[in-house]
Amino acid sequence: MATKQQRLDEIKTSIVDDKVCPELANTATQLVFGDGNSAADVVFIGEAPGKNEDLEGKPFVGASGKLLTEMLESISLKRQDVYITNIVKYRPPNNRDPLPDEKLAFLPYLQAQLDVIDPDLVVTLGRHSLNCFLPDLSISQVHGQPKRYKGRVYLPLFHPAAALYNGSMRQTLMEDFGRIPAIINTIKSDKENI
């Protein structure tokens, strides 16, 4: 039986084999699939790789990634404890927002990643990520509030990039982020009581 990491590697290979979003692939340096613990309790999902991510082949390695790492440390987690990915796996040209059809094309592969990892909590970073799973919700209204959908618990958070340019948003993001350990404990104890 394949390990979780082997199964994730197979999904990564199938994105290339299936030629998902070839126009994006042609303008990107490489596929940025995901990084971290394949058996993580928490998966963080951003929208798409930026310039640094495209060059390094890992999600969240630029300024937003440094803030994400800081926030993880604030709740006693390391990057290798969690799994970090994006909806879209290739950098959109000039860091533009991913288009609806690009998000749609990558969604089955993202779902497959989540099915393999099977985290207790999925943290969506920003509105694009939130709206892939919960399209009717607005990030400004539901940030920091866990939502159960199709058997998974999602925690919508503002994107770290937004917090880099807005001090009050940073405070909100840090407060919301600080709730993650309690939310995971609640999910784990609910599982035990089923």
SSE topology sketch:
Elements lengths: L3 H14 L4 H6 L6 E3 L5 E5 L4 H6 L6 H12 L8 E4 L13 H18 L3 E5 L1 H7 L5 H4 L4 E3 L2 E6 L2 H6 L1 H11 L2 H13 L2
Parallel strand pairs: 2-3, 2-4, 4-6
Antiparallel strand pairs: 1-3, 5-6
Helix pairs in contact: 1-5
Task: List descriptors.
alpha/beta, Uracil-DNA Glycosylase, subunit E, 194 residues
**Strand arrangement in the largest pleated sheet:** 1-3-2-4-6-5
Return the average pLDDT rounded to an integer. Answer: 95
Report the strand count: 6
- Radius of gyration, taken over Cα atoms and rounded to an integer in Å: 16 Å
- How many discrete domains? 1
Overview of the molecule:
The chain is of the alpha/beta class and 194 residues long. The protein has one domain: Uracil-DNA Glycosylase, subunit E (3-Layer(aba) Sandwich), CATH 3.40.470. The chain is 50% helix and 13% strand. The protein contains 10 helices and 6 strands; from the N terminus they run H-H-E-E-H-H-E-H-E-H-H-E-E-H-H-H. Helix 1 runs antiparallel to helix 5 (100-117). The two termini are 28 Å apart.
Brief synopsis:
This protein is α/β, with parallel strands linked by helices. The protein has ten helices and six strands; from the N terminus they run H-H-E-E-H-H-E-H-E-H-H-E-E-H-H-H. The protein has one domain: Uracil-DNA glycosylase-like domain (Uracil-DNA Glycosylase, subunit E), CATH 3.40.470.
